[in-house]
Design goal:
Elements (H helix, E strand, L loop, with lengths): L1 H21 L9 H12 L3 H6 L15 E3 L5 E5 L6 E4 L13 E3 L5 E5 L12 E3 L4 E3 L9 E3 L6 E3 L9 E3 L4 E5 L2 H5 L2 H5 L8 E4 L4 E3 L12 E5 L21 E3 L6 E2 L15 E3 L4 E5 L2 H4 L18 E4 L4 E4 L2 E5 L2 E5 L8 E3 L4 E4 L13 E3 L4 E2 L15 E3 L6 E2 L13 E3 L4 E5 L19 E3 L34 H12 L17
Length: 516
């Protein structure tokens, strides 16, 4: 009962706060004390920053200043100075954090702006939106009523901070946090764990590239609205999080580069993620067979007859309808790409660098909407299945460094958009299919398969060549034909070509700025 009352109170507070933000000033002038507090903030910055804010002066109404939003009474309720090349260090006396009506603060992208956030920021009861991505700030207590908290790429350190009780979006990644994510840290968030899901309320948690250990909190299973969980590049020592079987909205799961172990079949747990579109388990110690039963539940990776409408995975905060986009990193052959705007039709499976064994499961043959499949550096055996040739959207296929044998199936020639292929370091035999786009890939794509012969390899086949009539339909290339990236310049050039390529589309860019 108490939790319900708290949730209702927080929800009503959001309604009041965001209606206030939406009510922009038409004729009211800035309150005099608000102007003085803003000028004090300006004076605390380095001289070069003060020159950027040249229009901030005593002779003009502060509600008309660049980056400032006021309500109808002249109170400052929003400050957006993102990507303005501001520099300087904050301290406890900074007047910015005495703006008691401030509801939204965005200083993201000012890479020379930092210092310790003053403790007084926790006293700003109306502050519900904080974006400090790519600055140099250090720790401070935040308001428990924050709905969006983006601290990505700063200098925060120590134990992982609390999760604000009303958060929809949390990004603590690329800092120096350590320790473990405690169950009590998440279970103390009643608004997330007990608020009923609607179309406008989602949850994204990103705590990647830190030094967090421990286990995946069991209380995450209570987050019914969880869409994105990115715990990559940490030191988490755990088994596969089968307890997330009650998170049906999950779209992105990234566990790469941790210390996960064991199989991923979840036994009797009925894990179903019908919305899952990106899963990255790379560089762990997962073992056993690939999870046929679990794969069969990933409906978003299956074709539904009609090309899906291209839109970005985004979140809306009621009632202001302010939006923000989530991001995720995908890696292919050592080239890391950040998709700042995740398109809802983009799908990717990366199980590389583990200890999976057995055959490639037939369930993958149903993933007609799959764009990227990476099963490299495992212990997989059997043949390269012919059903991989029935994945019409597939643009990248990496099966290298396994124990796959037999012939390369002719059906792979049907992959008209395939622009990256690596079958090296296996036990494949026979002739590489002639007359297909498969031969457009470099020798490195087929290397270290003692039984393979024919172009592009130098090894000649004894038997007469047989041509395939599968055709070579036009396709969009990633220009990844050369597997090895021998220079920084080559990597940059490839990255630029990928940005213009088909699979990222217009909504995905390689950037360090939070999408709007």
């Amino acid at each position: 009962m108490l939790i319900s009352l708290v949730s209702c109170f927080i929800f009503n507070l959001y309604i009041a706060t965001f209606f206030s933000i939406a009510a922009l000033s038409v004729s009211a002038q800035c309150q005099s004390d608000q102007q003085q507090l803003l000028l004090g903030f300006k004076n605390s910055l380095n001289l070069s920053s003060s020159e950027i804010l040249v229009e901030w002066n005593q002779g003009t109404d502060c509600c008309s200043w660049d980056g400032i939003t006021c309500d109808t009474n002249g109170w400052v309720i929003g400050l957006d100075l993102s990507n303005r090349f501001l520099s300087g260090e904050f301290n406890n006396s900074n007047s910015l954090f005495r703006l008691q009506h401030l509801g939204r603060l965005n200083l993201a992208g000012n890479t020379q702006l930092g210092g310790r956030l003053p403790d007084s920021i926790g006293n700003l009861g109306q502050l519900t939106w904080i974006e400090l991505r790519y600055c140099k700030f250090t720790a401070s207590d935040m308001s428990p009523y924050v709905s969006v908290l983006d601290l990505h790429g700063n200098q925060f350190q120590g134990k992982i901070p609390f999760f604000p009780q009303a958060a929809y979006y949390i990004d603590y990644s690329d800092n120096n946090f350590h320790g473990s994510i405690l169950d009590k840290t998440i279970s103390r968030v009643p608004f997330l764990t007990h608020f009923r899901k609607t179309a406008d309320y989602k949850l994204s948690i990103s705590i990647k590239t830190d030094r967090l250990g421990g286990k995946v909190p069991k209380s995450l299973a209570n987050c019914k609205i969880l869409e994105v969980l990115d715990l990559g590049d940490n030191q988490i020592d755990d088994t596969f999080p089968c307890h997330l079987n009650s998170t049906p909205e999950l779209r992105v799961l990234v566990l790469r580069s941790n210390n996960f172990r064991g199989d991923v079949n979840c036994g009797g747990n009925n894990v179903t993620w019908p919305m899952l579109q990106i899963i990255d388990l790379a560089s762990n110690s997962f073992s056993g067979k690939l999870p046929q039963g679990l794969l069969m539940t990933w409906d978003s990776m299956k074709a539904h007859g009609v090309e899906p409408y291209s839109e970005n995975l985004r979140y809306e905060v009621m009632p202001s309808r302010a939006t923000f986009h989530d991001s995720v990193r995908v890696t292919m052959k050592g080239l890391e790409l950040e998709l700042v705007k995740i398109q809802t039709f983009f799908t990717s499976i990366d199980f590389s660098c583990n200890k999976f064994e057995g055959h490639i499961p037939e369930a993958i043959g149903d993933f007609k909407a799959l764009y990227l499949l990476n099963l490299s550096n495992n212990l997989l055996s059997g043949r390269v299945p012919s059903f991989l040739g029935s994945l019409p959207k597939l643009e990248a296929l990496d099966l290298s460094n396994n124990h796959l044998g037999g012939h390369i199936p002719l059906q792979l020639a049907n992959l008209n958009f395939l622009s990256f292929l690596n079958l090296s370091n296996n036990e494949l035999t026979g002739r590489i299919p002639l007359g297909t786009q498969i031969q457009s890939f470099s020798e490195a794509s087929f290397g270290n398969n003692a039984g393979l012969c024919g172009p592009p390899l130098e090894v000649q086949c004894d038997s007469p060549p047989t041509s395939s009539n599968s055709g070579t339909a036009n396709h969009v290339k990633w220009n990844f034909d050369d597997i090895s990236l021998d220079s920084r310049e080559e990597a940059v050039a490839i990255t630029r070509r990928i940005v213009a390529g088909r699979w990222l589309g217009n909504g995905a860019i390689i950037s360090s700025v939070l999408g709007k």
